Amino acid sequence: MSDVKNKAAMKNTDDLGDFSISSRGMTKDIIKRFLRNKTAVVGLVIIVVLAVCALFPAQISDPDYQTLHLDNAFALPSAEHILGTDELGRDMFTRIIWGCRTSLTIGLTSVAGACIVGVTIGCVAGFYSGVVDNVLMRLIDILMAVPNLLLGISVVAALGSSISNLIIAIGLGSISAFARVARSAVITVRGQEYIEAARATGAGDIRLMVKYVLPNALAPIIVQVSMGLATAILNISGLSFIGLGVPAPTPEWGSMLSTGRSYMRDYWHVITFPGIAIMLTVFAFNLFGDGLRDALDPRLKQ
Question: Any stretches that span the bilayer, and where are they (predicted)?
Fold first, then answer.
């Protein structure tokens, strides 16, 4: 009897070893496919640069981004101010670097909150289906009926202009996308044999969803996170552009565009560089998301 148990234990150990080796091989394969996509690598490099700027703005630029220098207003790009100065004499390079921290912080926080809420709703709806699925998805349909920017304007106008309210406004508009993606991924996974095997061993619904269903449905959710960040950055800039975003004097790319549009005919640099920052950020996250989707899709392995 002990020999049988030992053989069974050895077999389970071998299975775990094969699984870990297979997982490592799959990860390496995904990385290789991603690195073969040159445009995705370009997007990743830009994202890394943006992350460094957001994490270490004081080391890259001047820590003082609020002091006014009215005698040096609208200075063109030069050795002293490589991107020029704005209408109040503040260094544009400094404010763009600090604006990177503002935009990425709001974007990451709002998308993270939307991901948690949306994936939870989508996972429950896809796993149980039936009445639960219909009720939850109809609520998501109502949320999807309102455009993200319009929803953000309504929320900020009702709650007031602040960073926390902006995070809530952007996050609410992103919940529906995560819920839809998670639901479709869970529906695909829930009928697999290993789910039925885990259910036969006595695993409860929560354990099935957390340990078996959700980990195998993460690929499209991860891609949606990268795409959602690009949309969030655009919405943040749009709300700030119309005066409902980050309150002054905190630097933010959309608000810099809004204040600079009055002077764009005479001083081109006050709107050019914030616009380029928004464009590069959205472009990078879209490239990265496309490359990640292609790398995680097993049908594109060849």
Answer: 40-60, 104-128, 217-247, 267-289
